[in-house]
Amino acid sequence: SARSDLQPESRGQLERDGVIVEKWIWTSEPGSRVPSVLYRPAEISDPIPAIVITCGHGESKSQWTLTYIGQVYAKLGVACLVLDPIGEEERHSERGLGTRAHDPEPVHLRADGAGRLIMGKLVFDTIRGIDFLETRNDIDRSRIGVAGNSLGGAKATWMLALDTRLKLGLVCGWGYSDHLTIHGKFCTRIPNLRLREICDWTDVLKLASPDCALLILNGDTDPIIDDDESGRVWKETRQNVDRIANHFADGKIAYWFESGGGHRPYHGYKVALEWIHRHLGTPLASLEEIQALPTVNTGEWCDRNGIALEKLY
Fold first, then answer.
1. How do strand 253-258 and strand 213-219 relate by DSSP bridges?
2. Could you give phi then psi for residue 187, rounded to 5 degrees?
3. Best label site of 38, 97, 115, 276, fewest CB within 10 Å?
4. What is the CA 137 to chain-centroid distance, rounded?
5. For 14, phi and psi rounded to 5 degrees?
């Protein structure tokens, strides 16, 4: 069926250190308005690439790692759109942050009874985010990507399978293993179970081929996804990627594991920025400039600035 008019409304913007932060609200479907922020460089001449962030559990447009990543992308010359998922922040009845209101079983059952799983709503809203980007003259429609961690990595996977407009994917805190059909929240586990009734993980990954550039980034001691500490998820992820690599253009699918790394937002790491440079382009930064960027230990930074890190992240 035809998609509803986005009816985008600006809620103003601010500038910080060469980055413009635009505040928007638009319609995903009748009765469903989506607050979002768009980060972009203050000075651009030609249309630039863009990446949509798929939020993880408890994340929304004001989650601190995503405000950081949005600014980093913009400083490279890449626009970044972050939207509130259903049940979080301005789409929560009490405007709560980190609520995970889409997780409980009663929510899953109501959504399933209405004919669409929570994952379906999360993914559809993100697809509409790409529609919003395509309304803008400053965005290059041929260079749009998606990036997400944890539940965001799961959402990014569905996006890559369903939206042929995507040319790049950064999937973090997620894997491709049947362990994930018995593990996790209702909003991820149930879609995985039903998906596996009709196809396997290699079929899903192949849907992003041949021209989308997919990088899967994880920590090899992630206790959230590899919760039994067996390493099975990572082993099967590597095997499944290797099986279908020939379906992608040369060098356009890869995995990267940080030794000793946990459940981290790897879509903000330099290895991810280098992938963006190679496969979408970074108009304001060369590969050498990206590789020379300093790194910050966020745990130490948060300690210095009195910010409490959420345990799961």
1. parallel
2. -70, -15
3. 115
4. 23
5. -140, 160
pLDDT per residue rounded down to tens, the chain (313 residues): 478 999 999 999 999 999 999 999 999 999 999 999 999 999 988 999 999 999 998 898 998 899 999 999 999 999 999 999 988 878 888 877 878 878 888 888 898 898 999 999 999 999 999 999 999 999 999 999 999 999 999 999 999 999 999 999 999 999 999 988 877 788 888 998 899 899 999 999 999 999 899 999 999 999 989 988 899 999 999 999 999 999 999 999 999 999 999 999 999 999 999 999 999 999 999 999 999 999 988 889 889 988 887 766 6
Contacts of 192 (CB under 8 A, 6+ apart): 180, 181, 184
Report the alpha-carbon distance of residue 295 to residue 181 in Å, rounded.
35
Among 273, 247, 243, smallest CA distance to 176 is for 243
Which parts of 220-289 are beta strand (E)? Answer: 253-258
CB 284 within 8 A of CB 77: yes
CA nearest neighbour of 206 among 164, 161, 236? 161
Q: What single-letter amino acid sits at 51?
A: I
Which H or E run includes 157? helix 151-162
Burial class (CB in 10 A: 0-12, 13-18, 19+), 165: middle
CB 218 within 8 A of CB 257: yes
Cα 129 to chain centroid distance, Å, stands at 12
